[in-house]
Prior knowledge:
The protein is of the alpha/beta class. Helix content is 34%, strand content 22%. The chain has helices spanning 43-53, 68-79, 129-132, 143-147, 150-165, 187-195, 205-212, 228-231, 233-246, 295-309, 314-328, 340-347; strands at 11-15, 19-23, 37-41, 58-61, 63-64, 88-89, 96-100, 109-113, 136-142, 169-173, 200-203, 252-262, 265-274, 277-280, 284-286. The strands form 3 sheets. Strands 1, 4, 9, 10, 11, 12, 13, 14 and 15 form a 9-stranded mixed β-sheet that branches. Strands 3-2-7-8 form a 4-stranded mixed β-sheet. Strands 5-6 form a two-stranded parallel sheet. α10 (295-309) packs antiparallel against α11. It is globular and about 55 Å long. The model is unreliable at 353-357 (pLDDT under 50).
Amino acid sequence: MESKNLNNGKKVVTFGEVMLRLTTPGFKRFAQAGEFMATYGGSEANVALSLAHFGVPTEFVTRLPDNAIARACIASLRAGGLGTEGIVFGGKRMGIYFLEPGAAFRNSNVVYDREDSAFATIRPGMVDWERVFDGAGWFHWSGIAAALSQEGADACREALEVADRMGLTISCDLNFRKKLWNYGRTAAEVMMPLVQYSDVLFAAEPEYREIMGVKPVGFRATTAADSSFEANLPAFEDFMRQVGERVPRCRKIFLELRNSITSNHNLLAAVLLADGQFHHTGIYDIDHEVDRVGAGDAFVGGLIYGLLAYPDDAQKGLDFALAASALKNTVYGDFNQVTVEEVESLMQGNTSGRVSR
């Protein structure tokens, strides 16, 4: 699609690790798999690809080894419409993650193989941030980049300081991954100083609890018509205001809510505190998920697009983000390969699933 003049024509920059994803076919357990399906993924790359599919000029920044697998990955990113000029080369290997998809009452399982990857060994000074941010209006990063090493956290701070000095809007997804925080510091003590740069903040309830100590309300809806969500809205508003007190600079704070009935049946909703005003969505009941990995990133990508496309309508931006996330659950792989038209159609209630001819 032709790009709208969003963000005054300025690009969005995202920063993080992209990995080789190896998935067991046919919902097999790891012990059963004689082969794996290979794709690419990673939170900040997923966000960037969503934005590119929505027609937003977007550049993805990472560090990769100079080898054939990394070049194949870059070709995949470029094929999705991403700018990759900010990628730097170095290190010995690309990170990998193995995915065993869940089914019914069996949970999905992820095994990371990213220690000493090119990105895990990134440090300040490797990326020329002033060059990367030239022509940019928005910078997005996540807690995953800070979780891998102290040097990675320092590289995040370097990027944030330059983005702040150059006047970019800064967004952060807390993205807490317990398996990654292994270098002797807690997520809270590393992340809280970095989060203070945020103009826009995303997370799930457990992540706000882990990083900021805010007690979750709990999303327990079991159908799209469940009244418990509406009854809990005052508690969710109080939750969001507590987050806002901990990050005074932040103007827009988002919370995506998910209740997993089974591995393939989930309900989604979302709330927003925007410039002191509270907003909420309805509920999507997704009873036949294809792939939930990257659904949170699809929410973030949809939300950044929504804030740029509908700058005076926070509710519409929130509704767009949740619809984008709901659609991602129907798409295999990390990347959300849907269009603005498909998201807006779902927002309008078009859920028939008929063949488009």
